Amino acid sequence: MESRNTDNTLSAFKAIDWITIALYLLLVGIGALSIYAASYDFDNASVFDLNEFSGKQILWIGLGLAVGAVIMLSDYRIYKTYAYPIYICVLLLLLVTVFVAPNVKGSHSWLVFGPVSLQPAEFGKFATALALAKLFDNYNFNLNEKISNYFRALIIIFLPIILILLQRETGSALVYISLIFVLYREGMSGLVLFSVLCAITFFVVAVKFAEPLILGMPAGEFTVFLLICLIYALMLLFYCRDIIIARNVIFGFAGSGIIVGILALCGVSVPGIIYFPAILGGAMIYTALAMFRHRIGKFVTTIGFALVSVLFLFSVNYVFGNILEPHQQLRIKVALGIEEDLRGPGYNVNQSKIAIGSGGLTGKGFLNGTQTKLKYVPEQHTDFIFCTIGEEEGFIGSVTVLLLYLALILRLIHIAERQRTPFERVYAYCVVSILIFHLCINVGMVIGLIPVIGIPLPFFSYGGSSLWGFTILLFILLRLDASRRERMD
Amino acid sequence: MRKDYRLEKRKYIIGGFITLIVLIYVVRLFGLQIGDAKYKESADSNAFLKRVIYPARGLVYDRNDRLVVFNKPAYDLMLIPKDVGKFDTTMLCSAMGLTREQLAERWRDMKDTRKNPGYSAYTPQKLISHISQEDYGKLQEKLYLLPGFFIQKRTVREYSYHCGANVLGNIREVSANDIERDTTRYYRRGDYTGDLGIEKSYEKALRGRKGMEILMKDAYGRIKGKYENGIHDVAPVSGHNLKLSLDMELQQYGEQLMRGKIGAIVAIEPETGEILALVTSPNYDPSLLVGRQRGKNYAELVKDPLIPLYDRSIQAGYPPGSTFKSTQGLIFLQEGVINNNTMYPCYHGYVNGLRVGCHGHASPISLKPALQTSCNAFFCWGFKNMIDKKGANSKKQFEKWKDYMVQMGYGYRLGVDLPSEGRGFIPNNDFYSKSFRGANWTANSVISISIGQGEVLATPLQIANLGATIANRGWYRIPHVVKEISDSVIDVKYNEKHHPKIKKEYYETVAEGMRMAVTGGTCRTANLPDIEVCGKTGTAQNPHGRDHSVFMGFAPYHKPKIAIAVYVENAGFGATYGVPIGSLMIEKYLKGEISPSRKSIEDRMLNSNTIASSGVKKH
Predict the structure, then answer these.
(1) What is the pLDDT of residues A164-173, one digit of tens each?
(2) Backbone Cα Rg of chain B
(3) B564 forms bridges with which residues in the sheet?
């Protein structure tokens, strides 16, 4: 027995995914250098000064590696066994935080113990991932078997979201929504993701292009209607696979479109607000009639999709104007390039773009970035740390960092798929989803493609909680992965 | 083991999704970092404060190494509008001694693109110029309370003598025009450039080369030191120093003598062509055109009906009057119209179909006594005999006459190293053909030019140059005010000798006649006991009132050290003002002081006023 145990440990050591470890160390190392560069003062500086951000980050990295080592030495079974207790403990911690955390820039997310501050939301990620994995590990659990399975999954995801929203830490709360990806991998219909994608596209197009007017409606809305018609026809064609109905609908759309176009040239303008609902309604009635003969559920989905899309479009303006708060509207407008507010929220993004844009191909050289050194970019060592890479290492440096992240994520997907039980796979996809979300939102914000949402860049941004949160998240996965052979027995 | 291979394919969707996003971000990064250069500029304009370091402008010394023009520090309060944060206006006002309204007005003027065409919120703008040393000290302490403000050091001119403004000139801020015309693209808004005098004509030598230091400023507008320890900085190069040929003591004395009079004095060292004094009157103190009061004072000088900004010594074309007779004598001798013994009658004037009056002296008369007594008739006869020479074409003869005049430096600019030199006027055939409308004209028609009246005009500089040419017995160097440029050389043209085509012996004859005019003729006031002065008076009729009083001369008779021309507008006979002032200048220059016996003459000149007779009313 004993010799077998040693073998196990040995094979576990060999089974550690060293590629992931290497990528992790690279990212953490480049991150620490960037923090050093970002907080470097031209007047005086030292790397290991614990009063400086870079010095502290090195301390966090050291402690983080220790935590990682402990995880690697721990028994892989405890994570599955204690998944729910861990989840409940973290939920309680988040709940306590809501009430005891002091106000830091409007958010109540930091627990302060003397000189040390801790952000429990960062530790909620691995706990939620464990709980979700545990749920899917139930014997013969099938997401699509009954609707209550969806509810159980969504409850696990939304409990921490609610608690973190109560802490007024919107960015961190949004991260959990990325776990929808996991549900998709585990069987949720792709239509949901497709709908989300459509909703985002419709929203952006409708809000951004208020002018010019086409057929009496804003160009954005006009385009969205065209898209809805297009998607409707394509769904009939490829999703329902009914060529005849699809052909008739396409002819209907095209024919009426030509008539409206000719009328417009003759000076008779058909209002779009009447035209589009009319042809879509006509197409739906036609499809519904055809459905009686075929009796295929997919037609219902298609009609429903078009109907919801039109309703969504009509509600966009209301939601944007009445439900979103002014500062949120402004952030969205800035990100969409509708407004340029260089004194307010636009300032960060503009300075961040200047920092990155001024880097050129090869950058200004390590410690030579003027935008970051001279404090033009706010939050440059935390959320806007990517600027430092962009400015000092240029296009080559920033693309290299992006590719490192891409490599890490693709590697984790590979790891996820080689697991043989749902627990490990689901957990792995949770890690993948969270990293994707952080990377997309953080970098997208820094390069001015997405509204400013304050979440850190994993392994890069300054901060012990964030670094430890991601380290624990990743190393539990590595621990589970390293023992995948043991469970073959 | 459950494994759903249909679901496993979704890993490609998820992997494809993140790959697509990263690809989009890479394209975006390409657009930001390589596709668009404006971010580089924005970052530079954020971080770098390019501060011009103005070089010290060259100093100016006189011929005796007395410091004449030097620099004193002045400070401009600059700001970059976009960096200006909230600041205490009361504090700024009290430090600068301004009222709140004055500050607001300056602020408006700065932002007014009509008054300040280069206004931009992103570049340094000047709010207050020429801050004194004391105010600068006060402001420097408070500067940290004024985000976005900084102080630019520069220099303004300071003068040791309150004279010679026409030669020295002054400096002013460059205008939009200056910048546009500057083909070397050296000037930027806010730079200074020379205006008038040597400051203008020697601008390139005096200004030096601007330097530049690149400082870094942070997001709060605080200076964070030099960019890369200053390796990109450019050190300024100081301007060249100038040594004037002017004797500032003589210049000052000349201006004193001319006080209360309108006119000019030009004194030249004949051997070198160096101008010893270049007096115009009325004049002004060069210190008036310095600093914050410059604009106001300049406007007042422009409005003055006596036009003090007009440099009469080199710009004004006066009828040369009888000083011109010496040139005529030279031409007649060279042309063989007369010789030393040729006599012409004078019956109280030239009477030959028309009459040019003269005053009492012996008749007939030869050249030397004619110069001595300034006989009009002699030169009229000479002129008539030259132009209407038997067997010669009078047009060709006149052209010959004109060519001699041009060789002697008349009718064209001499090329003095000062801006806006006048050219005087010497008529030619075309001119007369036009003015007589094609009618046949003869020597008699234009006879008055032979005595320096009529159409001929000359600048005092040209007349002094004639004095220098006679003093040298037949050649001159182009008069100039700058003797040396430190670490450089003056234009070679000032070293070349110019020889009019007239024999040296004829100059000797004219010099002798001019000597006789001093010893026993019209210039007797100039007859100094121990200096052999030679001179020629002029009493120039003019359309503006009383005759101009003119003197042209040189001294000593042998090895002359100074040639001089004096012009006093509307002051009567040459002997009344021209001769005494000229002789005082000569005595002052050669002796250093005025002998006691001549103090009365000096007093009379210092205290007389002829402006009243000029017909110009001073407001």
Answers:
(1) 988 888 888 9
(2) 34
(3) B267, B553
pTM exceeds cut of 0.90? no
What residue ranges do the domains of chain B occupy?
49-83+124-244, 248-283+312-614
CB B522 within 8 Å of CB B380: no
CB A92 within 8 A of CB A160: no
Name the residue among B10, B29, B48 with its Cβ closest to that of A398: B29
Chain A residues within an 8 Å CB radius of B11:
185, 413, 416-417
Nearest of B372, B379, B333 to residue B356 by alpha carbon: B379
Cis ω before B556 (30° cut-off from 0): yes
- pLDDT recorded at residue B252: 93
Asked if A444 and A462 touch (Cβ cutoff 8 Å), the reply is no
| pLDDT surpasses 80 at A487 | no
Count each helix (H run) and each strand (E run) in chain A, helices first: 20, 4
Is the CB of B216 less than 8 angstroms away from the CB of A436? no
Distance, first Cα to last Cα, chain A:
15
How far, in Å, are A42, B152, B229 from residue B216 at the CA level?
Answer: 10, 16, 10
Give the residue from chain A lying closest to B222, CA to CA. Answer: A374
Which residues in chain B are contacts of A416 at CB distance < 8 A? 11
Which DSSP helix (H) or strand (E) runs through A333?
helix A326-335
Q: What's the CATH code, domain B49-83+124-244?
A: 3.90.1310.10
Phi, psi for B36 (deg, rounded to 5): -130, 115
pLDDT tens, A399-409? Answer: 999 999 999 99
| Model confidence band, residue B616 (pLDDT cutoffs 50, 70, 90) | low
Mean per-residue pLDDT over chain B, rounded: 87
| Tokens of residue B590, six digits | 């050669």
From the list B607, B577, B599, B589, the residue with the least C-alpha distance to B256 is B607
pLDDT in tens, A325-375: 777 787 777 777 677 666 666 788 888 888 998 888 988 888 888 887 777
- State both tokens at A118: 């801790």
Chain A, chain B: beta-carbon pairs less than 8 Å apart: 132
Contact B56, B73 (CB under 8 A): no
Residue B214 zone, left/alpha/beta (φ > 0; ψ -120 to 50; rest): beta
User: Would you state the structure tokens that stand for residue A177, as one six-digit string?
Assistant: 């929504």
Among A190, A374, A406, the residue with its CB nearest the CB of B18 is: A406
CATH no., domain B248-283+312-614: 3.40.710.10
Two tokens, residue A241:
């696979």
Cis peptide, bond prior to residue B460, ω within 30 of zero? no
What is d(CA A188, CA B223) in angstroms, rounded to the nearest whole number?
58
Check if B49-83+124-244 and B248-283+312-614 are the same fold.
Answer: no
Per the model's pLDDT, the better-predicted residue between B462 and A13 turns out to be: B462
Candidate from A232-236, B205-209, B353-357 with smallest mean pLDDT: B353-357
| Pairing assessment for the beta strands B60-61 and B242-244 based on DSSP bridges | parallel
Neighboring chain A residues of B7 at a CB cutoff of 8 Å: 185-187
H-helix segments, A240-271: 243-265
Nearest CA in chain A to B36: A357
Cβ–Cβ contact A191 with B under 8 A? no
Q: Which of A358, A403, A432 sits opposite B40 (nearest CB)?
A: A358
Q: How far is A358 from chain B (nearest CA, A)?
A: 4
Contact B270, B466 (CB under 8 A): no
Interface test with B, best of A42, A372, A384, A429 (most B CBs within 10 A): A42
CA distances from B604 to A358, B539, B557 (A): 77, 20, 26
Residue of chain A whose Cα is closest to the Cα of B17:
A436
Whether A42 sits inside 8 A of B25 (CB atoms) is: no
User: In whole angstroms, what is the distance from residue A422 CA to residue B2 CA?
Assistant: 8
Contacts 24+ apart (CB under 8 A), B490-493: B490/B417, B491/B417, B493/B415
